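fyi for ur records
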Amino acid sequence: MKRGCLMCCAFGLLMWLGGCSDTPAPPADTSAADQKAIKDGETAWVSDWASKDLDKIVGHYADDASVLVPDMPIMKGKSDIRTGLGQLVADKNLALTFTTSDTVTSKSGDLGYTQGTYSMTMTNPKTKKPETESGKYVTVYKKQADGSWKAVEDINNADAPAKPVTMAKAPPAARRAAGKKKKK
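which gave:
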């Protein structure tokens, strides 16, 4: 009888100790929803660049974000980012598009990154003519306290030097007509 009582107490103690484990349950895997949120954010970001809405463009960055682009100093924090990107947005020839090829998020659900390609047309400061640059980028995202995803590190580099934008030539008849108008 004593033996049965001891075994029952030992079993109860083990069950109680097992229930008091300090190991938290693993967090739910939200990576699919997180990746969708980041992709949707980048889609909106492309639209914001197309409309040249500086406030919306800068709004995709966290307060302490860094932007690293060629031929410019590191932009650290929203104030620097606003100033640096404001110079780009002011360019009448600016056109920027980017396409995400890969989106990855951490199992913990607090960090993620995208990788992709971009194409940007802007005015060459020396020649004052539009040039197009193509390249690749990586953007690191951090989930914010409100659940939104903001870029904390944004870096890109060109595949090759920018090339002058080639304008379509007018048909020969149009060129002759334009030449006659100039002679008059």
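The radius of gyration is 28 Å. thats all i got for now
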